[in-house]
Automatic annotation (TrEMBL):
GO terms for biological process: ribosome biogenesis. It comes from the Eukaryota. This is OBG-type G domain-containing protein. GO terms for cellular component: mitochondrion; nucleolus. It is found in: Nucleus, Nucleolus. Keywords: GTP-binding, Nucleotide-binding, Nucleus, Ribosome biogenesis. GO terms for molecular function: GTP binding; GTPase activity; magnesium ion binding. Residues 158-354 form the OBG-type G domain. Residues 22-157 form the Obg domain. Belongs to the TRAFAC class OBG-HflX-like GTPase superfamily. OBG GTPase family.
Length: 387
C-alpha cells in the first residue's frame, strides 16, 4: 500500500522545468591555487623552483557549461616548483596551468576584486600566482601559491541587445533578421536563455544581436528571472527595445499595460538595474502592426513616444521611470508578417552602428592628438638645459 502511494505520489510530483535543469550558465565559481615554490638548499645556496601560475585563456566558441563539464571538480591547482638538490642547484619551476574560458568573461574574487576581463581570443589573465622558490631571503623555504575561489562572470558581447517583455516578438524578430533559430510560441517565457543572431549584409559586414529574455514588470524586485540577463546589455553598443502595440499583460492577476506604459516600464526596469544603461543609444520597435486597430493605436501614441518625458506626469510612479532613453528611431513594424519592415530595421541598425563607430573613431583621434600635444608640451618643459 505504502509502495503504491509512493508510486502515485511520484507520478504527480512537480517535475523540474527543463530550462531550469539545462539552464544557460552565465557564471561559474571555481577554486584556483598556484603551485608552491620548491625549497632551496642552504648548504649549496640552491634556489627552489617557482610554483606554476593558474591562468585563464579566452576562447571563442566555448561555453561555461563546457568549462564545467571539462572539470566538474572546479578545482585548478598548478604544479609546485621542484626543490633544489645536489644535482640541480636551481629547482625546476612548476608549469603554468592554463584553462580555457569563453570570451566575455570577467574574473572576480569572493572579496570583489576584479582580476581581469577577457574580451579577445587568446587573451590571458593570471588567476593565482605560484609561490616563489626558497632562497636566502626567505630562509630557503618555498612560499605557498595564492589560493582563492574565483567567479567567472560571463557577459555576452553583442553589438545589439534586444529587450522587451515576454511575447513582444523578440524571437520572431531575431529569427527574421538573422540566422538564429530561437523558439517561438504564443505564450510568455518561451525564451529562457539569451539567443544570439548574426545580421549579415551584402558587403560581408556582420552585426551580432542578443535576445535577452525574461524581463518582466517588477524584475528589479527579483520577480520572474529578475535582472538575470540584463547584465548582458551592459556590453552592447545599441539597445533595441521591442513592444507589442497592443500592450502587455503577464497573466490575468496582473494589470494590462498599454503600449506606452510598456515602454515606460521597460525603461524603468533598465533604470532600476543600472541607470547608466539609459545613456546608451537605442531604437524602439512597435511590433504587431499587422493586428487589427494597430494603426489607429500607433497614431495615438506616436507623438507621446517622441516626447516621452512630457508624458510621464500623466502616469503613476509605479509605471514611471525617473529618466528616459533617447530613441534614435521609433519604427512601427510587423516582425512576423512584413519582411520589408524587418529589412528596413536591419539597415537602420547598421546605419546607427556605423555612425557610432565613426564617432568613436573621431573621439579616439581627438584623444590621441590631445595626448600627443600633452606629451610634446611635457617634452619641451623637460628639455635638457644648455649651458
Ligand atoms: N500578429 C503578429 N504576431 C506576432 C508578431 N511578432 C510575433 N508575434 C507572435 O507573438 C507571439 C510571441 O512571439 P515571440 O517572438 O515568441 O515573443 P518573445 O518576445 O520572444 O517572447 P519570450 O520568448 O516569451 O520572451 C508568437 O505567437 C508570435 O507568432 C507580429 O509582428 N504580428
Amino acid at each position: 500500500m505504502v509502495r503504491l502511494s509512493t508510486v502515485i505520489l511520484d507520478k504527480f510530483k512537480k517535475r523540474p522545468r527543463r530550462f531550469l535543469r539545462e539552464g544557460f550558465k552565465d557564471s561559474l565559481r571555481v577554486f584556483v591555487q598556484g603551485g608552491a615554490g620548491g625549497n632551496g638548499l642552504p648548504k649549496f645556496g640552491g634556489v627552489g623552483g617557482k610554483g606554476g601560475n593558474v591562468i585563464a585563456v579566452a576562447k571563442e566558441n566555448i561555453t561555461l557549461e563546457q568549462v564545467y563539464k571539462a572539470n566538474a571538480s572546479k578545482r585548478y591547482i598548478a604544479p609546485s616548483g621542484r626543490h633544489a638538490s645536489h644535482n640541480f642547484i636551481l629547482g625546476t619551476p612548476g608549469e603554468d596551468l592554463k584553462f580555457e574560458v569563453p570570451v566575455g568573461v570577467t574574473l572576480i574574487t569572493d572579496l570583489g576584486k576584479k582580476l581581469g576581463e577577457l574580451n579577445e581570443e587568446n587573451e590571458e589573465v593570471v588567476l593565482a600566482k605560484g609561490g616563489t622558490g626558497g632562497h636566502p631571503k626567505n630562509g630557503f623555504l618555498g612560499v605557498k601559491g595564492e589560493a582563492h575561489p574565483v567567479k567567472l562572470d560571463l557577459k555576452l558581447i553583442a553589438d545589439i541587445g534586444l529587450v522587451g517583455f515576454p511575447n513582444a516578438g523578440k524571437s520572431t524578430l531575431l529569427k527574421a533578421i538573422s540566422h538564429a533559430k530561437p523558439k517561438i510560441a504564443a505564450y510568455p517565457f518561451t525564451t529562457v536563455r539569451p539567443n544570439i543572431g548574426i545580421l549579415s549584409y551584402k558587403d560581408l559586414r556582420q552585426i551580432s544581436m542578443a535576445d535577452l529574455p525574461g524581463l518582466i514588470e517588477g524584475a528589479h524586485k527579483n520577480k520572474g528571472m529578475g535582472h538575470q540577463f540584463l547584465k548582458h546589455v551592459e556590453r552592447t553598443k545599441l539597445l533595441l527595445m521591442i513592444v507589442d502595440i497592443n500592450g502587455f499583460q503577464l497573466s490575468p492577476q496582473y494589470p494590462h499595460r498599454s503600449c506606452l506604459e510598456t515602454v515606460m516600464l521597460l525603461i524603468k526596469e533598465l533604470e532600476m538595474y543600472n541607470e547608466e544603461l539609459l545613456k546608451k543609444p537605442s531604437m524602439l520597435l512597435i511590433n504587431k502592426m499587422d493586428t487589427e486597430g494597430s494603426l489607429a493605436c500607433f497614431n495615438e501614441v506616436k507623438e507621446k513616444l517622441k516626447n516621452l518625458k512630457d508624458s510621464f506626469k500623466d502616469y503613476p510612479s509605479e509605471v514611471r521611470p525617473e529618466n528616459t532613453l533617447k530613441f534614435c528611431d521609433i519604427i512601427p513594424v510587423s516582425a512576423k508578417e512584413r519582411p520589408e519592415d524587418v529589412e528596413y530595421v536591419k539597415n537602420r541598425l547598421r546605419n546607427i552602428l556605423d555612425v557610432l563607430a565613426d564617432l568613436e573613431q573621431q573621439e579616439k583621434l581627438k584623444e590621441n592628438s590631445e595626448m600627443y600635444h600633452n606629451i610634446k608640451q611635457k617634452m619641451k618643459e623637460r628639455q635638457p638645459v644648455r649651458v
